Amino acid sequence: MGVERAYRRLLERDDRNGLAHNNLANLLRKSGRFSEAEAHYDRTLAWLPDSAEIRNNRGVRSNNFSSTSKPRSSIATPLN
Predict the structure, then answer these.
(1) CATH assignment of 3-66?
(2) Cβ-count burial of 60 within 10 angstroms (0-12 exposed, 13-18 middle, 19+ buried)?
(3) If you average pLDDT over every residue of the chain, what do you get?
(4) Distance CA 72, CA 74 (A)
(5) How far is CA 79 from the centre of its chain?
(6) Which of 19, 33, 55, 56 has a CA-to-CA distance to 64 between 20 and 30 Å?
(7) 0.90 exceeded by the pTM?
């Protein structure tokens, strides 16, 4: 069973698993499936809204889009 399939099966059983959404999003991003990855990052942040790691992952994702994409304000805010 492939890793992507394993994450998808896990999420079928528990869609609230933020870490599984994050890991699947990372996998999708690395394979160039950016819009799918974005949806899973958004689901991750719904369950883990204060996670700096996940906000960073989503920020890395935004750098993979073309220059016509607009950054989200939550990832454009510098950390102090």
Answers:
(1) 1.25.40.10
(2) middle
(3) 81
(4) 5
(5) 19
(6) 19
(7) no
